[in-house]
Design brief:
Layout: H1 2-5, E1 23-26, E2 32-35, E3 41-43, H2 50-64, H3 70-82, H4 89-103
Antiparallel strand pairs: 1-2, 2-3
Length: 104
């Protein structure tokens, strides 16, 4: 079996096994810098537009916001419990109609 592993084809005998590999290193910001054969350093940069930066900030703000407003929930529970919470049927019906027309 070892003779199979030692076989070389005619095409493989002229192969140069030395590779042209660039040296990479990280700068203090963690960005990768590549040193080319000429010694020059090329760095990759990413820049975001102002809009993208604002969207990223807004997304983080929304992610940090609570899903439920606990103060509002407790106020409604207390109003229902003491009987002071009143439902205006006309206003409720109009809100339902408005919602329905918005999703169509």
């Amino acid at each position: 079996m070892s003779e199979i592993n030692n076989l070389k084809t005619a095409l493989q005998t002229g192969l140069n096994t030395a590779r042209n590999v660039s040296n990479t290193r990280e700068n203090r910001d963690g960005a990768k810098a590549v040193e080319t054969q000429s010694g020059a350093i090329a760095t990759d940069k990413v820049s975001l537009t102002d809009t993208a930066t604002q969207l990223q900030s807004l997304q983080q703000t929304l992610a940090d916001a609570p899903v439920v407003n606990n103060d509002r929930v407790e106020a409604l529970r207390a109003a229902i419990a003491d009987g002071s919470y009143q439902v205006d049927a006309t206003e409720l019906a109009q809100s339902m109609i408005n919602f329905e027309t918005q999703i169509r």
